[in-house]
Fold:
Amino acid sequence: MPHLPYRDPDELDATQRRRLIDPWQDRFGYVSLFRRVLLHDPETLASWDRYYRGVMTDSDVVSGRLKEIAFVVAAAVDECPYCVANHGEWLVEEHGYPMDRFEALVAGEFERLEDRERAVAAVAAQLARDPAGVTESHLQALRDVGFDDAAVVELFVAICSLLSASALMQGLAVDPGDAGRDLSRYDR
Structure:
């Protein structure tokens, strides 16, 4: 049971609903538990949306798919079942990522991943486990697969945004089983 109740989007006034819920509902067909928790403070949710859109925008080097790979790894290391399930579903269903490779990400078995994925996964795991433990070899692995300094920063900011969301979801005891859709395939 979550520490805060999930807020019903129908409790919002029409303007807030149009701004914070309808675009999400139209695009994804549901309202995430993350949103339902943040609805307790609609302005914080609006700020998060602006920030997250900027973080998740594809760039020439760091695609949304690579960011989702990083999210799944960081969430698994950080032991956030909600984040693993939701970002796992997104990675597999929306980005067409193979289920066996998703399972390898969660298990920390990066050997069979492609070079770019392996470099991203290794950095995500290290940032989630011990940010001060990131070494030049982590950065060199990223550079070897085409990351410049701007792309490194972009990736790190994306990973840190997941870790922030992970702390929020874990701190409020949000359970992927509460989502109202079957995430059991991704629940690790």
